[in-house]
Each structure stands twice: as C-alpha cells, then as structure tokens.
Amino acid sequence: MSVTIVVLYHSSHGSVAAMAHEIAESIECQGGNALLRTFVAREPHDIVISKDDLIQCDGLAFGTPTRFGMMASQAKAFWETTSDLWLKGQLIDKPACVFSSSSSMHGGNEATLLNLSLPLLHHGMMLMGVPYEVPELLATQTGGTPYGASHVAGAQNSARLSKDEIKICQSVGQRLVKITRKLQ
Ligand SMILES: Cc1cc2nc3c(=O)[nH]c(=O)nc-3n(C[C@H](O)[C@H](O)[C@H](O)COP(=O)(O)O)c2cc1C
C-alpha cells in the first residue's frame, strides 16, 4: 500500500537536513513516498510546506535545530498559521515523529523534542517515539533518545551524523511507514 509521509524540517547548518534526508531515504526504501519540505526556502531545491501537503499526507516527521531548548522560530511561525486545520481536525490520527540537532550533548535536545511534539499533539496526531528495541538507542554515545531521533553537532556544527544516529533516523522512517500502513 502506498503511503505518503511529509518530512518537514528547518536547518541552518545542515545537521537537521542530513537527518531529514536519512529519514526520507528510509521511508522510500520501505516503499513509501517521502515529501521533503521546509518552512523557508534556503537552498534552490527546497520546497516550502503548504497546508495542503499536511492535509493530504498520511504521516509526518518534523524536525528543527535546538534553539534554547525549543523549536526554531520558523517552525513555530508556520504552526501558528494552522488553526484552520485544527478547527476542522484535519490532522487527527495521522502518525508523527520528531527529530532535532543540538550543539552540545546536554544542551536541551530532549526538551526540544518534547517542544516539537506539542503542536502535533494539539492537532491530534499520533506521536511515535523510538522504542528501545532499536539497539543503537542504548549504544549511542551522542544523539538518539526515546522521544525522537537526535544528533549532537558540536560547537562548530562540524560533527557528521554518527552510525548510531543514522540507524536511529532510519528506524524512525521505517516505523513511520509500518505504522501508517497498519492504520490505513
Ligand atoms: C539561536 C540559537 C539557539 C541555540 N540554542 C541551542 C541550545 O539551547 N542548545 C544547544 O546545544 N545548541 C543550541 N544551538 C545550536 C544549534 O542547536 C545547532 O547549531 C544545531 O545542531 C544546528 O542544526 P542545523 O545544522 O540543522 O542548523 C542554538 C543555535 C542558535 C542559532
């Protein structure tokens, strides 16, 4: 069964974009259709999210950098335009997950994952974390949490995604497709 998952993200230095691409690739590997979307056009290939994208998708992965322990303002500004969708309940029961990148290990990425979850819960989406059956969740020395995939980019934003962080991103994409199919 064909499922369409929107992978919606903001990224200034490339870390969250790299996570979004890992998640999108794993969705496609499972036979799903991944739509990469951003909040603002920063790169020539960026496609900016529309409310129709959200209404028509079967599931959502949503990520931004950690900004003082919260989501990036670009994402907050977008969600504040979605009251009409909320009034009509147009996102209710769609499965969703969140992901984030931070400079430092304990710099608030878990708080940001919870913060990213809030608008999705208000919209009635079905929030998915990362279960501990994903072995990399226990093994990781950097990012990866039960609340969602994460990455620790370092003070200069120079750290690439670790093998464990990549596996956790991939598990998120795979599980989104699996659960979305079950719900259809
Ligand atoms: C305004 C601002 C606030 C930030 N706040 C935090 C923070 O609270 N904790 C942290 O570890 N990193 C913080 N950072 C660093 C970003 O989270 C980090 O650069 C992130 O990995 C960038 O993701 P990107 O490469 O996708 O842009 C902040 C950066 C900016 C610009």
Automatic annotation (TrEMBL):
Instruction: Extract the NCBIfam families matched here.
Output: PRK03767.1
InterPro entries referenced in this protein's UniProt entry, alphabetically: Flavodoxin/NO_synth, Flavoprotein-like_sf, FMN_Rdtase-like_dom
Checking PANTHER family in the record gives: FLAVODOXIN-RELATED PROTEIN WRBA-RELATED (PTHR30546), FLAVOPROTEIN-LIKE PROTEIN YCP4-RELATED (PTHR30546:SF23)
- Name by which UniProt lists this protein: NAD(P)H:quinone oxidoreductase
SUPFAM superfamilies associated with the record? Flavoproteins (SSF52218)
Q: Which organism is it from?
A: Pseudoalteromonas arctica
Report the EC code(s) recorded for this entry.
1.6.5.2
Q: Which GO terms describe its molecular function?
A: FMN binding; NAD(P)H dehydrogenase (quinone) activity
Top class in the EC scheme: oxidoreductase
- Domain (Flavodoxin-like): give its ranges: 5-177
Q: Which UniProt keywords are listed?
A: Flavoprotein, FMN, Oxidoreductase
Establish whether keyword Flavoprotein is in the entry.
Answer: yes
Q: Which family does it belong to?
A: Belongs to the WrbA family.
Enumerate the transmembrane spans.
Answer: none
Question: What cellular component terms from Gene Ontology apply here?
Answer: membrane
Q: Does the keyword Lipid metabolism apply?
A: no
